[in-house]
Design a protein that fits this description.
By secondary structure, this protein is mainly alpha-helical. The protein has 17 helices and three strands. A three-stranded antiparallel β-sheet has the order 1-2-3, covered by helices on one side. The two termini are 14 Å apart. The N terminus is likely disordered.
Length: 399
């Protein structure tokens, strides 16, 4: 039957593996969204150069090896690609059945952060140190399980043909599923990740066809919650200082406002074409803290200029455009909701990361997807690309 949310709904049947379903003529390779894949790869490739430039002179970080972060970023990208291939091979429909296990595992991991196994890095107590220089940020994987879990609940009866839209009881269950890990992440506190998760929840609800009253209600609740979080002192002092510096850029320019001031100087000095890769004075002089992670966009702005920074924005735009096409063309609500959650995640996190380097958003400690250094973030975004590709690969040819 046809739903009123802009796509037709077909009865769900269990997936038995994408490879066995597709004929040689209608192969996986033919069905892949190549612009999406190439744009994501290009972002990771550009990111490796920017990370290299930001860290090659930082001997206190690179252990005396100027290529240390470059090779690790490339390794993270390779592992991410393997995870993408594995996700496509399993298929988003197969993962639908594994959601309870994946969700439970992600909740356990974020709970472990609150135990003595957790570690504080760059002011955020959001990590589990594995050893050998490796660490894990479980909140990155919670984003995926929230998307998959909410999509499973919201689309179950719609894809079965029993309903046109998720009912109120189903929406309550989906919100409860998202609130639990978000509350745990807030206790760390990791405000940036919670902000992304909140946007994901809104994107998922909008795509599911749930009543708009839920969306407006959540926006109002979020505003009230933000005031309560501020008044009750849930945030750490460094997070409060970040918001204060955002509200008043001239506040303590040598202290809490130092990062954003140096970031704007770096980007502003790049001009149209930049100073040239490895030739930026702000980057070479190590004036911008955390430049390989949260502030990697400043390297592009300084050394590649407006044109290079614009290329990153263009590639991110292609990723979002292709994801929107995949969401629109799928014939099942489950696939649409999963794709919409990923779109909301990538769009908001990219806007927040780039916005904080330009001074139009507060510093929230969020990496730039595909570009910033970080294993957990890289693995999560490539799994998301795998989900998008799986949705496209498994759609009917007529769609």
């Amino acid at each position: 039957m046809a739903g009123t949310h802009g796509f037709s709904v077909s009865r769900y049947t269990p997936d038995r593996g994408v490879w066995s379903k597709l004929t040689a003529r209608d192969s996986v390779m033919r069905r892949l969204d190549w612009p999406l894949l190439f744009s994501s790869l290009a972002l990771s490739a550009v990111g490796s150069l920017l990370v290299w430039s930001a860290t090659r002179n930082r001997t206190q970080l690179n252990q005396g090896d100027p290529y240390y972060f470059f090779f690790r970023h490339a390794l993270n990208t390779g592992i991410g690609l393997a995870l993408m291939i594995g996700t496509i091979w399993l298929g988003h429909r197969t993962l639908r059945g594994a959601v309870p296990v994946l969700y439970g595992l992600s909740v356990v991991l974020v709970l472990l952060v609150l135990t003595p196994l957790g570690a504080t890095i760059n002011g955020a107590h959001a990590w589990i140190v594995i050893g050998g220089g490796f660490s894990l940020q479980p909140s990155e994987f919670v984003k995926i399980t929230i998307i998959l879990g909410m999509a499973m609940l919201l689309a179950s009866r719609v894809d079965a043909g029993d309903q046109l839209h998720p009912d109120h009881r189903t929406v309550v269950k989906a919100l409860a599923l998202a609130v639990l890990p978000m509350a745990i992440v807030m206790l760390m506190p990791d405000l940036g990740s919670v902000m992304v998760m909140a946007v994901i929840v809104l994107g998922v609800l909008l795509a599911s066809g749930a009543s708009n009253r839920w969306v407006f209600g959540l926006l109002g609740t979020g505003a009230i919650g933000a005031v309560l979080v501020w008044q009750l002192g849930v945030l750490d002092e460094y997070q409060i200082n970040r918001f204060a510096a955002f509200a008043n850029p001239e506040l303590d320019p040598a202290g809490v406002g130092y990062n954003t001031n140096q970031a704007r100087i770096a980007i502003g000095s790049g001009g149209l074409t930049g100073t040239g890769l490895f030739k930026g004075s702000q980057t070479t002089g190590q004036f911008v803290p955390e430049q390989q992670t949260d502030f990697v966009f400043t390297v592009a702005g300084e050394e590649l200029g407006f044109l290079g920074a614009g290329l990153i924005l263009l590639l991110l735009g292609v990723v979002l455009w292709r994801a929107c096409r995949i969401a629109r063309e799928t014939t099942e609500l489950y696939g649409t909701v999963v794709a919409a959650g990923i779109i909301a995640w990538f769009a908001f996190q990219s806007f927040e990361n780039i916005g904080m380097t330009l001074g139009i958003m507060p510093v929230a400690g969020l990496p730039l997807p595909f570009v910033s250094y970080g294993g957990s973030s890289m693995f999560a975004v490539w799994v998301a690309i795998g989900l998008l590709q799986s949705i496209r690969v498994q759609r009917p040819m007529s769609a």
